[in-house]
Design goal:
The protein is of the alpha+beta class. It is 17% helix and 32% strand. It has a single domain, classed as 2,3-Dihydroxybiphenyl 1,2-Dioxygenase, domain 1 (Roll). The strands form 2 sheets. It has an 8-stranded mixed β-sheet with strand order 2-3-4-1-13-16-15-14. Strands 6-7-8-5-9-12-11-10 form an 8-stranded mixed β-sheet, covered by helices on one side. Strand 6 and strand 7 form a beta hairpin.
């Protein structure tokens, strides 16, 4: 039996300037840098992981700051929007904060009965905040160094996939444990005229929306590299891998990513999907209190530290006390 995914595990994107990326996602948006590392397939670039206070599954937005890559364009075969949950009534706070920090944002829209605030990060990556009721037993832990708890981001809400031919992907999502829960006309979206929502059983990152489009795109700064889904244990992941394979797709063998174990495949529309385990977790090699405090080089890369550090741009992680001093 295949254990259904609970939803999104993490989303990985492409950035340009690493310092600008850190400043925006830590100070402006108030997410915690839970891991400062390198791209294990390209150790010449950083890999930043931003999440809730404890780096829980379903909360981490990660980035490869490939400084020499050109700007991307969102189009078919991509994750076109990444949405985060925020507590009900907090969008006024976020609009004021975006005004203060010079963040480009759009008008609020209503989608499936929820209020959505679209905005962009410094590379033009399309992001959204969605107001939801946060239950008392919610598994996320807000990080409050820059943003108060009552307004803090509480993990993923959803991703939107732009696809030229959605039916096979819809079937794949159902195989992974998502259920189709509704369709409505798109609003505030340049592509397609119909949005279909699929929901997983979990409480964080539970939604995947599909919008049909033939809008052309290209990978680069300001685009999503891949989206990972939760397969908490090796057994869950192995079963899901077999289920995906039975659909005619070609998932990779399991790859050890140090903080989780991963399987990758491109779904029928071209979006790169990942299956990721819950363990060992971001605190497996750093104390919880020190997450993101140093450059972590997993496995064989530690022996190349001097060479790797020499090739990376110097960065400073934003701290609340530093921001207050600047004021």
């Amino acid at each position: 039996m295949t254990t259904p995914t609970q939803g999104i595990h993490h989303v990985t994107c492409i950035a340009s300037d690493p310092q600008e990326n850190l400043d925006f996602w830590v100070e402006t948006l108030g997410l915690r840098l839970v891991k400062r590392s390198i791209n294990q397939d390209d150790p010449s670039t950083y890999h930043f992981f931003f999440a809730d206070a404890e780096g829980n599954p379903g909360t981490s937005m990660t980035f490869f700051p490939w400084e020499n890559m050109s700007s991307g364009k969102v189009g078919t075969g991509q994750v076109s929007r990444t949405a985060f949950r925020v507590p009900e009534g907090s969008l006024d706070y976020w609009e004021e904060r975006f005004d203060e920090y010079g963040v480009e944002y759009g008008d609020r829209i209503e989608r499936f009965g929820e209020t959505v605030l679209p905005f962009e990060d410094p590379d033009g990556l399309p992001v959204e905040l969605v107001e939801v009721e946060i239950p008392d037993d919610d598994p996320t832990v807000p990080w409050t160094e820059f943003v108060p708890e009552e307004n803090a981001i509480r993990g993923f809400h959803s991703v939107t996939l732009w696809l030229a031919d959605p039916p096979q992907t819809k079937d794949l999502l159902e195989t992974m444990g998502f259920e189709e829960v509704g369709t409505e006309q798109t609003e505030g979206d340049v592509a397609g005229d119909e949005r279909t929502r699929f929901a997983a059983a979990g409480s964080v990152g539970k939604y995947v929306d599909i919008v049909p489009t033939i809008e052309s795109g290209r990978q680069g700064h300001g685009t999503v590299h891949h989206v990972a889904f939760q397969t908490p244990t090796d057994e869950d992941q192995s079963a899901m891998r077999k289920a995906v394979q039975s659909k005619g797709l070609r998932p990779t063998p399991q790859i050890n990513r140090h903080w989780f174990r991963s399987v990758y495949f491109r779904e029928f529309g071209g979006v790169l999907f990942e299956l990721a385990t819950s363990d060992p977790g971001y605190d497996s090699d750093e104390p919880l209190s020190d997450l993101g405090g140093r450059l972590v080089l997993p496995g064989k890369f530690e022996g190349q530290r001097e060479q790797i550090e020499a090739g990376l741009t110097d960065v400073t992680v934003p701290r609340a006390e530093s921001a207050e001093a600047d004021d």
